[in-house]
Structure formats: structure tokens, C-alpha cells
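Obj: model holo form, ligand = pyridoxal-5'-phosphate.
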Amino acid sequence: MTTQDTKLSSADLMQLENEYGAHNYHPLPVVLARGEGVFVYDAEGKKYYDFLSSYSAVNQGHCHPRIIGALTRQAETLTLTSRAFYNDQLGVYEKYITEFFGFDKVLPMNTGAEAVETAIKICRKWGYEKKGIPNGEAKIIVCGHNFHGRTVTIISFSSDPDAKGHFGPYTPGFQAIPYNDIAALQEILEKEADTIAGFLVEPIQGEAGVFVPDEDFIPQAAALCKEHNVLFIADEIQTGIARTGAMLRVCGDCNCQSKCERQADTYTRPDMLILGKAISGGVYPVSAVLCDNHIMEVIHPGQHGSTFGGNPLACAVATEALEVVVDEKLMVNARHLGKVFRTRMQKFVDKSDVVTLVRGKGLLNAIVINDTEDSKTAWNICVALKENGLLAKPTHGNIIRFAPPLVMTEEQLHECCDIIEKTIGQFG
Ligand SMILES: *Cc1c(COP(=O)(O)O)cnc(C)c1O
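Output (holo C-alpha cells):
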């Protein structure tokens, strides 16, 4: 039975999720039934601007016709072979994505957390077999307030009590330093580099509330890692694929007009690059770890894998999704609209008592609400935004992330700013 057959209302559908689903999320009270470009529609047909883009998975816009075309063509041909056999899509995709991002090799997985786990495994094995760390002693440095996913190992180095509480015992071998603190990284590397295999970092911390580090933090961290023979691992699952105005956030503010050429003066080349989310345009779970041969060669048959990783459907979808980003110059649009958005919001912040600041890069932005982290104000603003036709979600209590699909027009963005200003104005 489909929704259309039974005409279930939004209230009915929320009730079903509540009764039969685990309560591991606290969704905004809106039930989405259709999406197209920058818009989503609820079960009653009301239209909304999507200002979350499924946590930046839908950068190319909802149901992009080219990506859906690739999906349906491949779905009618071959979907899953397992890696017990070769398939006619995987090698072509692997050549495409490695050339696209400039690495020797890729290891394909499905979800972001799986790709992070993969990077951790490769990094540890590299630490023992290439760097010569005594077996069992490899450490990976991470940052406070990180978000890298939800597996037991990943939450073992989370600083969020909800993510971590009562899920122990935890995986050892991780040590946190404060984000954006280059001195702290230098100190630990100078003391303990012999047993440190990698440094895992988000170039902008999205889930934590869109924390943009100092311009030189990422390049300096990469340089320190190089000096100490430590792998610099960039988690670009949320910041990558044009979201912040360049193909990757590690590209900095480089001005490539289409496919990023990764200019040496702005580009920090990670030893390992982790991608997910928008690599498939939100159409299918696809993730990847990219690195060079001297690192990837530590992995041999039987040591890592996934039934669905690298399946033909994923390969066809991801290739088309990346092509769309290049052809539609989404990094250029994200950079331009990001400036328009922050300029307008800054003017609003200057005269508002409700919002204290706006920050971000490209179309990954956030505003901070002038209230405590445990207050309901940001949530109530998001509910009011929903009433006014725009969907966003608070992160960490008093912060609201604004991340629309990158296919938005400037006119649409101004209309969205009107909605945001009008709605927050009601809370003043
Ligand atoms: C979303 C996200 C992940 C986890 O991806 P899933 O597909 O939800 O497992 C990891 N790192 C970052 C930076 C993310 O934004």
C-alpha cells in the first residue's frame, strides 16, 4: 500500500513512525513525500525550501534528472554482483574518481561511517607496516566536538555525551586535541609521534555547528603531520563535493571555475580523503576513501570489504552525480550565494537581538541564537520557519544550520532570506 492509496495524513504518518520506529531521531513535525531541486513537498502537498539538504547529501538538488536517469538505467541492467566477481562499472568508476580527486586508488564503501572506519583501519595498518609502530600501540589524533559517524569505534572518540553514553566499552587508541589548536597538535606530535599513525579532522566542523577554523589551521596541520610522518586524514563527507564553494574544503578559497584544478598554493593535499553524502547526490548510499599506492597497498584480499561496496548501481550514480557538480559549476554557485547569504544575514544580525552571529563557507552556514544551549528557542524558530515554508534543523541546541541544495538561484536565496528574517523577527 502506498501513501496515495491509503491517503494517510501527515499526522497519521508521524504516528506510525512514533509507534513502530526506534526513537533515535527527533524530527521536525513535517512529513516529506516528494522532492524536486531546492524544494520538498509534504504529504498534503505543501511546498518548502529545503535548507538542510539531508545534511549536505543533496547538493545537486532533489531527484536530479541526470542522476535519476543513471540510477534507473543501471537498475534495469545490473545492481549487485558482490566483489566475489568483477563488474563492468567498478573499474571505470575507480579510474574516474581517482583521476577526479588526484589519488592513486579508491576503496569504495556505502555510508560515511563505514568510510571513516575504513580510513582508521588503513591508517592503523600503515602505522604498523610502514611506519614501524609497535603492534597494538598505534594512536590516531582527533579533535574535540568532532562528528565522524555512529559506530562503536567512532563514538569512542566523540565528545558528545548522547553519542557516547552507555555504549562502552570503547575502542582505545584515539586521543583528542581541541579543534583549531595548532599548538596542541604540535605538542602531541613532538612528544608522541613515534606511536601516532594519523590525524583525523573535519576541515570545517559541520555537526558541531559549522565551526570554521583559522585559514592556516588545515595547511599547518597537514605540514606538521608530514614532518612527523603521520597521515593527515580529511573527513570531507559534509564539506566536500562543492558544498563550501570549492570541490573540496581542503582546496581553501581557490578560484577554479569548474572541476577543481587544486592549485598548489591553496590546496592542502590530504594523505587520505574520506567522501560520502553528496558523492551520490543523495540518491544512493555511496562513500569512498582515497589515498596513494604506498598507503592503500597495506590492504590485501580478505582484510576489508562490504557486500554492497563498489556495486554497479553505486558506481553509475556517483559518476553522474560528480559530473553534474562540474557541468553545473555548483562550486561557483555555492561560493557566490554563500557570500550573498552571509552579507544579508550579517546586516540582519547587526540589528537583531535574537541572532548573535552568522558564520560559514559557501553554502554551509549557521546562525547562533541568543539563548542557552538547552533552550527551546532554536527549535521553536525552526518550527516557525517550517510554517513559513522553509526547513532547517537546530544543531547543538542554539545553533541553526542553513545548507540549501547548491542548485539554488540568487532570486530564490533572497526569497529564503526574506522568510528567515520575517520568521526570526517574530521572536524579537
Ligand atoms: C554525516 C557525516 C559522517 C557519517 O556519515 P553517515 O553516512 O551518516 O554514516 C561522517 N563524517 C561527517 C563529517 C559527516 O558529516
